[in-house]
Every structure is written in C-alpha cells, then in structure tokens.
Write a structure and sequence with these properties.
By secondary structure, this protein is an alpha/beta fold. 37% of the residues lie in helices and 24% in strands. Helix 3 crosses helix 4 and helix 5 runs parallel beside helix 6. The protein starts with a strand and ends in an 8-residue tail after the last helix.
C-alpha cells in the first residue's frame, strides 16, 4: 500500500529526515514512536504531500506520488490525515464538517453525502443528538472523533494519525484510541504517530522507533519489548511506564 524509499528533509541546518525507508502493507497498522524532534510528524506530512522531501521517493498503491507530475489533490483524497489539533470548521455543525469534503471536493450530491456522514459518525460513536451541534458545543474527544469521521468519509486507502490524543485528557484520549483500534481491526491501513506506548504495543503490527530523523528500530511489539535495538528505545519505554520487561 505504501512504500517510502530513502527520504530526506532538512530545514536549514536541521536534518528532520535522514534516509527513512519502510513499507506498509494493505490492512496493516504500524506505529511510529520516538522522542520529540525525531522527525515523526515531518514524515507523515511528506507522505500526505503537505511537505516536499528533499530526496527520496514515496509510492502509494504502486504509484510514485513524489513524481513532479503527481496530482497532489487526488493523492490527498486517498489519504486521511488526523492532526494533533482537531482542525474542524467552527461555523459548521458536526454533520457539516463531515459532509464538506464530500460535497466540495468529491462533488457528491447532498443527500448521498448526508447518508455517508451518518454512516461514519456512527462508526466513531458520535451520538445522533450531537450531529447538529457546533464544535464549540462538544468535548475534545468528540471533536477528534468527528475529525476521524471526516477523514473516513472520503473513503481513504490509508489513514495517518499525528499524535491524535496529545491535546486530550486521559479519559477523552481513551475514547479516541478505542475508535482507532476498532478501525485498525476492521482492516483500515493505518500509520500512527503516538507517545501512548501501551496503545502502541496493543494496536501495532509493527513499531518503528525514530531518533534524529532515522528509523533505528523496526519490529513487532514483542520484539520491541524483548530486545530493543537502541539505548534511546529503552529509555523511551521506561519514560512511557513500560518498565517490567526491562528490569
């Protein structure tokens, strides 16, 4: 589904990505972890073509999307992106936020868009009595689940999540993480950046540990627990409260 080859990105003297290479199969869930500044968010933004890499190639469903002739808007319709902040339109209701991409980008008739919006809102467990409320009238966890629903409505082949719970308290974060887990179990191809280590260990088919713009460990959750390949990974796991297996 996704293949990233030797990706580099610099901002002045700062090397955000230093030769990142990995692949993601259809239906897989991979989780990217690592310290702040490791390049995790930059990597996701390169995959969604929000940032252009300096070098390297990215393939989606076999097509090189880093090719200069690529229609970036069409590519982005295939990729759902859930940001740290909710990025909802405050002047639109919950339904309006989910429908806008369908009506404005995909040009789907309003009634069809409404049916699709209802379907995905149910998938992320947003109650019907909230559908006509505005973002200011719902909780942070509900906002993030609406953001996920908005992405799902476009029927993406790949979902990217960039620290989707970083702005939420633990209870609301758990609501969002449960939805992401359900979608992964349903076969949604997912790439998730998170600091929630227990969640990462539970949901991931494979974990990528990044440091200084590089992937320094790749393996299953079991492999990360039993034999982390980098000292930074050991320290990061301890900071995340994953201690017992390391003692």
């Amino acid at each position: 589904m996704l293949k990233v080859e030797d990706l580099y990105k610099s901002y002045g003297n700062v090397n955000a990505l230093n030769g990142v290479t990995f692949s993601l199969g259809k239906g897989e869930t991979k989780v990217i972890v690592g310290p702040s500044g490791a390049g995790k968010s930059t990597l996701l933004k390169c995959i969604n073509l929000l940032i252009k890499p300096d070098r390297g190639r990215i393939f989606l469903e076999g097509e090189e999307i880093t090719n200069p002739s690529t229609n970036e808007n069409k590519v982005r319709q295939k990729i759902g992106f859930v940001f740290q902040e909710f990025n909802l339109f405050n002047h639109l209701t919950v339904l309006g936020n989910v429908m806008i991409g369908l009506t404005k980008v995909k040009r789907i008739p309003k009634e069809e868009a409404l049916e699709k919006a209802r379907e995905v809102l149910n998938m992320v467990h947003i109650r019907e009595d909230l559908w006509n409320r505005y973002p200011s009238q719902i909780s942070g966890g509900e906002k993030q689940r609406v953001a996920i629903a908005r992405a799902l409505a476009m029927e993406p082949v790949l979902m990217l999540y960039d620290e989707p719970t970083s702005a939420l308290d633990p209870q609301l974060a758990d609501e969002v993480l449960q939805v992401i887990k359900e979608l992964s179990r349903m076969g949604m191809t997912s790439l998730i950046v998170t600091h929630e280590m227990n969640f990462a260990l539970e949901v991931a088919d494979e974990i990528l540990f990044m440091s200084d713009g590089r992937i320094v460990h790749t393996g299953s959750p079991t492999e990360l627990l039993s034999s982390p390949k980098h000292d930074l990974a050991v320290r990061f796991l301890r900071l995340g409260g994953i201690n017992g297996f390391l003692d």
